[in-house]
Amino acid sequence: MVNAIYLTLAAFTAYYARVFFGALRGVRPAPAHVVTGFATNFFDTLGIGSFATTTAIFKFRSMTPDHLIPGTLNAGHTLPTILQAFIYITAIEVDAVTLVLMIGGAVAGAWFGAAAVAGLSRRGVQRGVGGALLFAAVVLLMRQFDLFPAGGAALGLTGWKLIVAVLGNFLFGAVGTLGIGFYAPCMTMVSLLGMNPAAAFPIMMGSSAFLMPVASAQFVKRNAFAPPVALGLALGGLAGVPLAAFVVKSLPMEGLRWLVIVVVLYAAVLMLRSGKTE
Questions:
Q1: How does 53-63 read in b/e, with b if 16+ C-beta sit within 10 Å?
Q2: 233 pLDDT exceeds 90?
Q3: Integer distance in angstroms from the first to the last C-alpha of the chain?
Q4: pTM exceeds 0.90 for this model
Q5: Which residues does 180 contact at the CB level (< 8 Å), separation at least 6?
Q6: Per-residue DSSP letters for 166-202?
Q7: Which domain holds residue 11?
Q8: For 155-170, what is each residue's pLDDT tens digit?
Q9: In the chain, what's the furthest Cα-to-Cα distance?
Q10: Is 232's pLDDT higher than 80?
């Protein structure tokens, strides 16, 4: 089963790489784009997250128009996220049926969600991304104060719990294309359903790795992203992920998380104010 997952993920990766790089002929990222991709994916691998921090940087530096932020986030962070999955997806045991069905739910949600987000107006994106940033700040605060559900000991789900988990992943895959991120809501859900929180990691990483090529290809085909910025995020991220995973491995993150919370909240206010003004 694991080999089948890896082979399927490799096929998804090849498909997305063809779509992504095919749309980038002659595109050159600025050094700031590459540095942003390196830093955000480096800290994502260590547990900070990448969507909220990248959105904050975009807003502060006016790196991309607001309405292109969701597409640029998804397109740029897809390949680094897949690399994380290849590194970590088999590190923790989880029931194979639960893993495959939840990945399928997330991919289906991302397909429909990306199409909807790519067609949103500038004001709709500003409000959606602003709300996503507020949600991310709340999640970070919950993590700081250890407010996530404790979870149980199960490594898989059956019956109605499995149905709820698949439907939940469908929802998270759909709304995650706005930049909310997938990890925190997925971990909360599987913990509430009685699974071991550690088992959430292969589910989260596997789901993200499969859903992001599907969602991102939609944004790329609709030209709803900023090509130089997305390429910079991808190139920087592909360097940041292995450095964090194999060399640094861990950092004292307490103070950094508080800084991220403040920055994300401020960026959320700016984004929502922009949506209200327009």
A1: bbbbbbbeeeb
A2: yes
A3: 50
A4: no
A5: 51, 132, 135, 136, 172
A6: HHHHHHHHHHGGGTT-SHHHHHHHHHHTTB-GGGHHH
A7: 2-277
A8: 899 999 999 999 999 9
A9: 51
A10: yes
